[in-house]
């Protein structure tokens, strides 16, 4: 190395030039020394690392310009910077593309420092060259990865107002619709539009203010104004002094993910069939209603809505039809809601309504009544018409409960009271109903074992022809004789048996017992007549009804014409097409069919004429006041006329005196039954009645 490079230090340490020479030779980085005064800054020295990096031996470089490494690359931006450094005699650093002796290309970071003599004149330049080919290759890979990323990458200045954008990748334009030129130098606030009150923006402002990493989910707006959700991850970029100069942000479009999460949340809180709030959301709504009522010192009602005889639809038409019917009911009920009300589905055919009290804290029964009326309108499914009613129980906050569970439980208890009082009505919860509910539960347990323990029996009530005065039939009436409770009234257990499904085995037992008893009377030589047995809604929905009746008749030996099946008016109108099919199958067997309690339901004449019915039975409620109430008398006359017009017989039940009998006979009623003839009595008592009964019946008829 030229001694002038270290001439300033020679007086201090004679060994220093030698040490420096050894240090540069051992240095891992390439070092080259060029004369500052020579043309093209000719090389005076290159260490072994420089030789290894470029492929040129030191002897090949000495006296030559380093342009040998840039042949054909004279337009590099870095070379312009080098010329300025050399011209201005200052330190500097550039990155250059170089060519080795064998022509291969490599990239290097070149750091240039001037060497001055004792007078301060620059005599040489020392260049330190570091091969950054792999580093740049990695950077380029990262750059290409950023450019190819499906997520938006943004680089913003940490210094300018609003953190202006300095770089966006192509994904940003695809995601937002903004081209790079439209956002350069601008704030990303343009993506927020007028939606500036977002919770996520508060977090973003904190991240930028505190110059830390962070994350937020935002509503953004594309160039066309459409909204999308994005997850924004922000990280600060610090310089070598630790000062934050930029922020790098990665933006992910999570619109679909957000929609999926919202759908999952919706499904977790709403009934899949009707779209109504489910039990989970109902609990939250009740908690909110309780908190709101406490703040306002007011109340609200919880109404438990249960559809009457809905199981009949499922049993006869299948669950698909049942689901369609439930959707119709839910839509109807929703149409009556006010913005303060909540309607939820608990499951099956059970709904819960939360309704605020009227001014003065009065329960709003008008909404409940409107819902009952709406449910009662005919429903149409698969071209068939159904008639459904609702029983509703109401519990009031805070009198009947101060938490969701108590309110629902007490409303449920009141609903069962509505069932017990005839269905299609609403009842308020009373504290005494808790004991009734416990009694009902106990009764259900007793009912489940009553059949196998032989606690049921049948009583029979004669039916008499008004023109001939003879017994034409016997109605079989179910009785329950409990060993501890004694005689349990049918009103207490029939509905319960229907709801629990126990009515089906009980009903078939009654059919078999009645047929067997009638055959015994016939075998004993008594007059032949039919025995009438009530068929429940659950039995009527049984697909095996006709087959079971056929088997019972074959087993007991009773001819089909001596069995009459009594169906309630509301039952046959629930599903007209199903009724027609079942009645036709029953008539094919040869049994008789009558409609019980006629006049209490909602028969349509157009439907009634389609039914193969033998007899209409006038309900006792019309017969009771037939002599005192002109309306009841008119209804009775109308039913008799209707039955005759449709070529049906007509029988009146509940006849208790001769005047009622006379009125019915004068208006051409065919048959009667009631206490005037005989109370329902056990089969043994009927034997005696039958042996003298025709004479008794005839005398009663003639005496009237």
TrEMBL record:
<feature type="domain" description="PAC">
    <location>
        <begin position="90"/>
        <end position="144"/>
    </location>
</feature>
<dbReference type="InterPro" id="IPR029787">
    <property type="entry name" value="Nucleotide_cyclase"/>
</dbReference>
<dbReference type="InterPro" id="IPR052155">
    <property type="entry name" value="Biofilm_reg_signaling"/>
</dbReference>
<dbReference type="Pfam" id="PF00563">
    <property type="entry name" value="EAL"/>
</dbReference>
<feature type="domain" description="EAL">
    <location>
        <begin position="440"/>
        <end position="694"/>
    </location>
</feature>
<dbReference type="InterPro" id="IPR001610">
    <property type="entry name" value="PAC"/>
</dbReference>
<dbReference type="Pfam" id="PF13426">
    <property type="entry name" value="PAS_9"/>
</dbReference>
<dbReference type="GO" id="GO:0071111">
    <property type="term" value="F:cyclic-guanylate-specific phosphodiesterase activity"/>
</dbReference>
<dbReference type="Pfam" id="PF00990">
    <property type="entry name" value="GGDEF"/>
</dbReference>
<dbReference type="InterPro" id="IPR043128">
    <property type="entry name" value="Rev_trsase/Diguanyl_cyclase"/>
</dbReference>
<feature type="domain" description="PAC">
    <location>
        <begin position="212"/>
        <end position="266"/>
    </location>
</feature>
<feature type="domain" description="GGDEF">
    <location>
        <begin position="298"/>
        <end position="431"/>
    </location>
</feature>
<dbReference type="InterPro" id="IPR001633">
    <property type="entry name" value="EAL_dom"/>
</dbReference>
<dbReference type="InterPro" id="IPR035965">
    <property type="entry name" value="PAS-like_dom_sf"/>
</dbReference>
<feature type="domain" description="PAS">
    <location>
        <begin position="138"/>
        <end position="211"/>
    </location>
</feature>
<protein>
    <recommendedName>
        <fullName>Diguanylate cyclase</fullName>
    </recommendedName>
</protein>
<dbReference type="InterPro" id="IPR000014">
    <property type="entry name" value="PAS"/>
</dbReference>
<dbReference type="InterPro" id="IPR035919">
    <property type="entry name" value="EAL_sf"/>
</dbReference>
<dbReference type="InterPro" id="IPR000700">
    <property type="entry name" value="PAS-assoc_C"/>
</dbReference>
<feature type="domain" description="PAS">
    <location>
        <begin position="20"/>
        <end position="70"/>
    </location>
</feature>
<dbReference type="InterPro" id="IPR012226">
    <property type="entry name" value="Diguanyl_cyclase/Pdiesterase"/>
</dbReference>
<dbReference type="GO" id="GO:0071732">
    <property type="term" value="P:cellular response to nitric oxide"/>
</dbReference>
<dbReference type="InterPro" id="IPR000160">
    <property type="entry name" value="GGDEF_dom"/>
</dbReference>
